[in-house]
């Protein structure tokens, strides 16, 4: 689960590391009025730097990250997905409590959109916060090639001004020694059965180590989104005096200085930070002996101290009723070094060569990629506690669709930092984590690992709210 410094440095040392000063590739898009067209298409992008050969990415509208969709809380979002790829695709709106029909899960809530066809998404965003969108058909391939973008829902009355609100999309690419996207290793069974597709080349907003401008002495909001397939990023925001405003889009009651380090940001997770910088600083990955730089923040301006902004208003999430909850257990098993487990896939117990043929090597409650029946069903309005036990040798990033949950217990102990609301939680080997939420959104909702190779290789199930 730890980034490999040698891997990161493998390319940096070959002279590809450039302190790019080009403006962010994130293009703002206003989707509130009218329909935003997102064309899934191939495009060239020089991941390793302007002087390096281009990689062939899959993008929305020619850029990765795709256009930033920025709307106000309660607004309607209308997006027309036009598929110009040779492979069917769909879009999921990660973290949005959405109508089931708009959730974008190919094979569960809609059919994948074939080449040349289009699909209209139309939904309202109930919660303010930092979200993202990404392909949800063969995500390990499509997200891994660049099909994702930020979805920012501003508070009904914005708390930070436009110049003090910065989106930071963090990705982790695997490049060949020539500095282009390593195409040949997509789908590697080694990745699927181990820690997922880990890269060797970090980008922020599509660039390696960009410089990002901030205003001196003014509180700014940094919206960090980890879109990588499998990389858990270790960050230490206290090093530049940052406080945590929100996890996975949901604000904390007040901005909080983390009492621990590192902050682990798993695949699909978000954290909103508040910084009030006096001088330049670097956002670093800190899991190795020496920190690895991800982005440089350049601070300029008058430095008149502005007052701290008011706290972010909380979203109206239904409080789980633990006394009346229905508890369901999910046992995670399989993968390399996980010991002998029995895995059923499409009604058959796998053995021998079956693993290689089906590529199903992980399971929830003994079943890989259970799509024909739900993991559990629950009546609308009921509180559910999902108690998940990780009986594998790897960390995972578990995600519920359609609902945010409170993390209430981790390996038998209460979660001390206020049982935060999240939509994705990290679980280490041998850990048990309980989450609780009110199942108030009818439909079929995925519960899966957001390490996208794990999801494809068996760690996908769903629950039904009726
Ligand atoms: Cu980010 Cu099933 O999704
Ligand atoms: Cu996993």
TrEMBL record:
Source organism (scientific name): Zhengella mangrovi
What does the record give under GO molecular function? copper ion binding; oxidoreductase activity
Q: Which residues form the Plastocyanin-like domain?
A: 52-156, 357-466
The cross-references to InterPro entries, in alphabetical order and at most eight, read: Cu-oxidase-like_N (IPR011707), Cu-oxidase_C (IPR011706), Cu-oxidase_fam (IPR045087), Cu_oxidase_CS (IPR033138), Cu_oxidase_Cu_BS (IPR002355), Cupredoxin (IPR008972), TAT_signal (IPR006311)
Pfam families, from UniProt?
Cu-oxidase_2, Cu-oxidase_3
Spell out the protein name for this chain. Answer: Copper oxidase
Q: Which CDD domains match?
A: CuRO_1_CumA_like (cd13861)
The major lineage groups are:
Bacteria, Pseudomonadati, Pseudomonadota, Alphaproteobacteria, Hyphomicrobiales
Q: Which domain of life is it from?
A: Bacteria
């Amino acid at each position: 689960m730890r980034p490999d410094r040698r891997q990161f440095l493998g390319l940096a040392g070959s002279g590809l590391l450039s302190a790019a000063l080009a403006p962010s590739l994130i293009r703002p898009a206003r989707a509130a009025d009218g329909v935003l067209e997102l064309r899934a298409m191939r495009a060239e992008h020089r991941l390793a730097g302007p002087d390096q050969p281009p990689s062939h990415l899959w993008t929305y509208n020619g850029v990765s990250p795709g256009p930033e969709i920025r709307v106000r809380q309660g607004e309607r979002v209308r997006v027309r997905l036009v598929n110009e790829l040779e492979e069917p695709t769909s879009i999921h709106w990660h973290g949005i409590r959405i109508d089931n029909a708009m959730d974008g899960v190919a094979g569960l809530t809609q059919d994948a959109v074939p080449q040349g066809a289009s699909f209209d998404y139309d939904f309202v965003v109930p919660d303010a916060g930092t979200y993202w969108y990404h392909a949800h058909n063969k995500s390990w391939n499509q997200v891994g090639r660049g099909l994702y973008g930020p979805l920012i829902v501003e508070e009904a009355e914005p708390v930070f001004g436009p110049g003090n609100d910065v989106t930071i999309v963090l990705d982790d690419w695997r490049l060949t020694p020539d500095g282009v996207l390593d195409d040949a290793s997509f789908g590697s069974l080694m990745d699927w059965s181990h820690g997922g597709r880990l890269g060797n080349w970090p980008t922020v907003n599509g660039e390696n180590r960009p410089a990002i401008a901030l205003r001196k002495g003014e509180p700014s909001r940094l919206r960090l989104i980890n879109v990588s397939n499998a990389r858990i990023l270790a960050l230490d925001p206290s090093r530049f005096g940052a406080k945590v405003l929100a996890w996975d889009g949901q604000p904390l009651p007040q901005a909080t200085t983390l009492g621990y380090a590192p902050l682990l940001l798993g695949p699909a997770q978000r954290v909103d930070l508040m910084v009030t910088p006096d001088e330049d600083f670097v956002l670093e990955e800190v899991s190795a002996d020496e920190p690895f730089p991800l982005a440089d923040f350049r601070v300029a301006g008058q430095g008149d101290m502005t007052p701290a902004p008011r706290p972010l208003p909380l979203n109206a999430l239904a409080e789980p009723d633990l006394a009346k909850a229905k508890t369901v257990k999910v046992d995670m098993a399989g993968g390399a070094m996980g010991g002998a487990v029995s895995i059923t896939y499409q009604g058959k117990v796998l053995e021998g060569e079956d693993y290689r043929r089906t590529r199903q090597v992980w399971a929830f409650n003994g079943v890989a990629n259970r799509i024909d029946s739900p993991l559990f069903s629950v009546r609308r309005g009921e509180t559910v506690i999902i108690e998940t036990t990780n009986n594998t040798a790897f960390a995972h990033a578990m995600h519920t669709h359609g609902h945010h949950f409170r993390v209430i217990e981790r390996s038998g102990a209460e979660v001390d930092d206020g049982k935060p609301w999240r939509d994705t939680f990290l679980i280490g080997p041998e850990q048990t984590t309980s989450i609780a939420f009110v199942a108030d959104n009818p439909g079929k909702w995925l519960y899966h690992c957001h390490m996208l190779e794990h999801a494809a290789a068996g760690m996908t199930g769903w629950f039904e709210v009726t």
